[in-house]
Write a structure and sequence with these properties.
The complex is a heterodimer of chains A (315) and B (415). By secondary structure, chain A is α/β, with parallel strands linked by helices. Chain A has nine helices and ten strands. In chain A, 31% of the residues lie in helices and 14% in strands. In chain A, helix 4 links the parallel strand 2 and strand 3.
Chain lengths: 315, 415
């Protein structure tokens, strides 16, 4: 803490032109996060270890400084995470000194609440909805902050910033509250909760340029690295044999890849890339011709895949 | 980078989704996989052109009915600006969505089908954009290819529209007419070769030239206290910071301020953004302020510069746009959220209903239905600190919450 105080004392004399940078999206996100802390009793920040939730953590730090983030972080552990993501998560939590809650899909499977998918495309992506809804009920969370963005997917383009879910976690997309000007209505009944999306209006490139500008640390799998992989349906899959099912004719070879989005190993495809620094990643995204969710196997299931999952309570 | 928010309005089949798709396509904002999905679906439907509307119509119900039913947000950018389009539907019954989309936008595009000209819907679209005081409005006269790119037709529609403009309340609103064909891309991003008689700019050129500071609404600085930061750590034991967003104008260290409602005077001691101090808090920045006196402020209080006091009153007259399935009734208790400040409210009287198509007013109304717009008289249990909507878009507006459903039931613009 001493370093921060010294920094402040150094900036005690300031000239008249000195003002925070006009990053409209950053100021909007901080406003939204502060509304959550002010309007709800038990908020939580859903933390996946991906770049969007890491960005949220940075924004929350800025929103409440010099106080700590006034709510816990929660990770829904599918058991299919990249080991690099988990290591990163634990390091970040230790540095920040905030509370981390972990709830695991494996427990939901063991309790018989969900049944593991089988076959070639088996993933735990849909199963985590149950684990999430159970955790919301267990801790009586009334607001869950998430890193979803409207530019990710068509159904998300209709999502509100404060999105009300009923006590079954359902999203009623035809009956959403209008959001006018800056005013956010967080009034709910007991049992309902609100999903909050502070970076709704950011694009993938906005997130990357923010990470670059703010010098935010992210898991190593976002950068080019050698990985054992195989090809399926034109996408590059991770060859993690204990988690991802692979047929005999799907041969493994090492490629230089990175991930643009970090979901589970069983539902996130890699892209071939030599971008090993944040600068190179940003310029690659700038020139990219494939959308981010194009590498999400879970969205390819059908054109309405995301909307159906969201109605059921998926993030 | 600058971010410009644009609301779009058009009647069914005016080609609004096609225009947005065209903007995305011609600015190379559609990624290969999205384009592929559009090509595939267009082929399946047997179209001999690319159905760009598929890029924006998000919900299953919309794809089934082929219409847009809610506000969708679409993002694209040029090297100069980032754009957010609020795609709002054009049906009569969806006035509420148009008001919602316009409330966060600095510019608007209203589409007119060149074959049909100004229709009743056009009146509504214009009325709402004018009511919300959008500074820049583009009237895109679409489907020019279907009227032989006729200059006469364009001028006739323009003249009809200008007659409508004479009725508007917010006369400073800037209107630009552009003849386009969204399907073929004429004058959307690239200049049309088919319309040689038109010397003006394309839609994108016009948007690129807009000065963001000039189209954003300004006024006197208002600082509603959103959250109080009290770390109570050893290093910041006595730190008491007031977190919030600055609206209307900027605040400076040393400014003499008045706290509402207590009317206590103090000075801005420091302006923090994260762990750095600044001398100026610009408009729309989310900062934390400390004051030179130890004052006990809480959420809902407001800091303003001494000498720049807003009105403080327990009664206001406002234009209300009703958005809920349960009708607004006089005498019922509602909650009003003015910025981050909540008060209880009752509607004392509905003065008159306003037809949002410029066809006049209706008196002796006892209730408001969804999509109705009316002038009403409201009474609060505590005073609010407000400016007229005309002078301050943020501090002159509020939302009405129905405390039995918690829904956002309406929005008000204070007279």
């Amino acid at each position: 803490m001493n370093t921060i105080i010294e920094e402040i004392q150094k900036t005690e004399t300031i000239d008249a032109m000195d003002r925070p940078k006009a990053n409209a999206l950053e100021h909007e996100a901080i406003y939204i996060i502060r509304e959550v802390a002010a309007q709800f009793e038990r908020p939580v920040l859903l933390f996946s270890g991906g770049k969007d939730s890491i960005t949220l953590v940075r924004l929350a730090q800025k929103a409440f400084w010099p106080a700590k983030i006034p709510f816990p972080l929660m990770h829904i552990d599918t058991g299919h995470n990249f080991p690099e993501t988990l290591a990163f998560r634990d390091k970040l939590i230790a540095e920040m000194g905030v509370e981390l809650i972990v709830r695991s899909v494996q427990d939901s499977i063991d309790q018989g609440k969900v049944i593991e998918e089988s076959g070639k495309y088996a993933s735990r992506n849909t199963l985590q909805t149950t684990t999430l809804l159970d955790a919301i009920e267990e801790f009586k969370f009334d607001a869950c902050i998430g890193g979803a963005r409207r530019d990710e997917e068509k159904a998300r383009a209709k999502e509100r910033i404060f999105s009300v879910r009923d006590d079954f976690g359902q999203w009623d997309e035809k009956n959403q509250r209008p959001e006018l000007f800056d005013m956010l209505n967080g009034e709910i009944e007991i049992g309902q909760n609100v999903r909050v999306f502070p970076i709704s209006n950011w694009t993938e490139l906005d997130v990357w340029t923010y990470i670059e500008k703010e010098n935010i640390e992210i898991p190593s799998i976002y950068f080019s690295h050698p990985r054992k992989t195989f090809l399926r349906d034109g996408l590059i899959w991770s060859a993690a044999d204990d988690i991802v099912f692979r047929t005999e004719d799907e041969t493994v070879s090492e490629r230089r890849v990175r991930f643009r989005t970090v979901g589970d190993m069983s539902c996130t495809a890699a892209v071939e890339s030599h971008a090993d620094t944040i600068e190179k990643v940003v310029s690659e995204i700038r020139e990219s011709k494939i959308s981010e969710r194009g590498a999400r196997i879970d969205d390819k299931r059908s054109e309405a895949a995301m909307e159906r999952r969201k109605q059921q309570g998926y993030f | 980078m600058e971010v410009l928010k644009i609301a779009t309005a058009g009647s069914v089949d005016d080609g609004k989704s096609t225009l947005i798709g065209r903007l995305l396509y011609d600015t190379k904002s559609l990624t290969e996989d999205k384009l592929e999905a559009i090509e595939k679906t267009s082929r399946q439907k047997g179209y001999d052109y690319l159905d760009f509307s598929l890029a924006t119509d998000g919900l299953v119900a919309e794809r089934e009915q082929g219409i847009t039913i809610d506000v969708a947000h679409i993002y694209f950018s040029t090297p100069k600006k980032s754009y957010i389009i609020a795609d709002t539907p054009g049906h009569v019954e969806y006035t509420r969505n148009m008001v919602t989309g316009a409330s966060t936008s600095q510019a608007a595009i209203i589409l007119i089908d060149a074959r049909k000209g100004v229709v009743e819907q056009t009146n509504r679209h214009f009325f709402i954009n004018n009511l919300l005081r959008i500074k820049e409005v583009i009237i895109a006269i679409n489907k020019m290819d279907l009227v032989g790119f006729s200059q006469e037709r364009f001028n006739a529609i323009k003249a009809d529209f200008q007659a409508l403009m004479a009725k508007r309340d917010y006369a400073e609103q800037k209107i630009t007419f552009i003849p386009i064909s969204a399907l073929n891309g004429d004058n959307v991003v690239t200049k049309s070769k088919n319309i040689p008689w038109y010397a003006g700019v394309t839609i994108l050129e016009h948007l690129e030239h807009l000065d963001l500071a000039a189209v954003s609404n300004s006024g006197t600085p208002r600082f509603p206290v959103q959250y109080v930061i009290r770390p109570k750590t050893q290093d910041f034991h006595d730190f008491r910071g007031f977190a919030g967003k600055v609206y209307g104008g900027e605040l400076h260290v040393g400014d003499e301020v008045v706290v509402l409602p207590s009317m206590t005077k103090s000075r801005i001691k420091a302006i923090y953004f994260h762990n750095k101090k600044y001398s100026t808090a610009p408009r729309r920045s989310s900062v934390t302020l400390t004051l030179s006196d130890e004052l006990n402020l809480s959420r809902g209080d407001m800091l303003v510069r001494a000498g720049d006091l807003p009105a403080m009153d327990k009664e206001v007259t406002a234009t209300v746009s009703w958005m809920d399935a349960h009708s607004l009734v006089t005498g019922k208790k509602y909650k009003v959220q003015h910025g981050v400040h909540k008060v209880w409210a009752k509607v004392d009287a509905i003065i008159h209903k306003i037809h949002p198509d410029y066809s006049g007013i209706e008196e002796n109304v006892s209730a408001l239905q969804m999509n109705d717009i009316a002038k009403v008289r409201l009474r609060f249990n505590k005073p609010i600190f407000y400016d007229r909507f005309k002078e301050h878009r943020t501090n002159g507006s509020f939302i009405i919450l129905d405390s039995s459903t918690n829904n956002t039931a309406g929005v008000g613009f204070i007279d």
